[in-house]
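Troubleshooting: if your tokenizer reports a length mismatch, compare against these two reference records.
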Amino acid sequence: METQAGVPTVPVKNLTGSSPVNPALAGITGILMSAAGLPVCLTRPPKLVLHPPPVSKSEIQSIPGISHTCRKTTKKQAKKGKTPEEVLKKYLQKVRHPPDEDCTICMERLSAPSGYKGPQPAVKPDLVGKLVKCGHVFHLHCLVAMYNNGNKDGSLQCPTCKTIYGVKTGTQPPGKMEYHIIPHALPGHSDCKTIRIIYNIPPGVQGPEHPNPGKSFTARGFPRHCYLPDSEKGRKVLKLLLVAWDRRLIFAIGTSSTTGESDTVIWNEIHHKTEFGSNLTGHGYPDINYLDNVLAELAAQGITEESLVQEKD
């Protein structure tokens, strides 16, 4: 039944359960507003729909252009055999006459020795280098120290502009990623079916690349179900998410921003839609900007269409 335009509404989830507005309070509010000569009607707020209707195995389809329907990752160790100095040499040019500005890592002048006070790399503290793609300048001493404090995977990310050199990888624990098409449409994408992604990561023990090596970590909320429209752009996002999964960039081990729990599996700066039929949490549809936003987040991790070509090579 439609309400009249301009009539105030009081949202009530149901008349027997919990609600944003207690049913008794809603009734009292309605009586008071009516007594004041104000029309009022009770409405039900939108319902949270996390999952699609049940789907049988026969209705699940593989995704055209993408082989298999599952990817597993195991614990990969950082590449060995090259020193940090040898790795950085590929991305740097030496600067004989440093500019009159600060090194943004140690905040000392580039014309003075590095101010880094941690474990000392095997590089002279007064040497200065320029990153070849973005042109930002730092103490070599500081860059080596930054590399040693990171994933040590042969890649480097400029601390000023975030330009990535080499192939960036993460520290995602071992797990499984499934992906397929289901015969239901997402809100705002009624013209196509839906790609469902299922992530599953079990709890385990942290490795040397994690915050607390040797300590156990938890994995809450798995399996996690995520959704993309089965459109051309949706399939493109999926292909790039597969690259991110293989590079261990989807998840990390850290502190949960929602529960405050430490040493647990968390999302790693690539947002996913986990709400199928509504958008009450902000993690659902419709969201006209989501696909473009997630493509930008993937690019910030060094994953673009060029990455798809690299993976084939």
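Reference record two:
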Amino acid sequence: MDFKLIVLSEEDRRWFMEAMQSQTVDVIKRMKEITLVMQTPEQVLESQGVTPQDIEDMLDELQEHVESIDMANDLHSIGGLAPLLGYLKNSHANIRAKAAEVVTTIVQNNPQSQQLVMEANGLEPLLSNFASDPDVTVRTKALGAISSLIRHNKPGIEAFRLANGYAALRDALGSESVKFQRKALNLIQYLLNENASDCSVVDKLGFPRIMLHLASSEDPDVREAALRGLLELAREKADGSAIKLAEDNEKLKQLLGERIKGISLMSPEDLGAAREERHLVDSLWNACYNEPSSLRDKGLLVLPGEDAPPPDVASKHFEPPLRAWAANPASKKSSVEQKETPLLLGPGPSSEATSNQDTSMSEADANGQTNASQ
């Protein structure tokens, strides 16, 4: 089969290159426009009719742009990072919450932006919002940003510890918001997994008692997160140390007994969904009492059709999440779609051809071998 080589004219080539470059150019231009708005004093924006909702929409757009690691890192170079961090202190709770979301996206799995935010003193307003903001949504979003900022970031973890971050986490566990509780519990276990010596710190701050309470939560995610935290405390560390949860604490045995009873009464469908909780309960019982739980005798630890080795109930919660654009870029809106600034201001050969080409090559090889033998 004949193949035709298509040669682009110079005009077509120029158009193609411009189309390929236009996305980056347009995004950078748009981010500069957004930066200009963020740098404008709030009273000036209000005088020109810019509403808090306009600012939220603008931050939504910015968050979409900085999902690209390159764009996230470029935000600092165009002067946008500092005013974004300033929005963490905005008088409107929704803007404070949205700014924290954008920060989360910027630093997520991005060591360079983590360092830039740390150098810009971005952890301080996040900690303030997390610990004392009157709006629980703002506190929750700030905690999410902190979790992404200090993950796999030793200077960030140390700064969090020195800023009395564990005390703020303890307060978060007492919140009535299950989402806030879940985020706090997940960060606690990550920190304990990274720094075994911190187990004694959380023990002195009374975390085990609070986790015991949350381990009987009606929310299954909170319940599992609390059990993971207790298991992390109970596990023997490299130096042989461990928090003795079972000493003089019948409440733990009572709690685990109640969870075993609850699991025993579950329907087959619910049992399948509670696989992680089943293994957590058994592992915690074994860690505290040096014997397997009764879930094993009842045949409820490994159900028919399940693999015998227990799942890794901890590490999957602490893998750096992939950015949304990498997971499913087609689902994102085009980053070059223009939005009005609230202020001032673009196939291979067929399978048959491939088959014919392969056949021709094979025949040529065969002829070559025949000629060589002659």
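Descriptive notes for reference record two:
- Residues 67 and 325 are 7 Å apart (CA to CA).
- The chain is about 65% helix and 0% strand.
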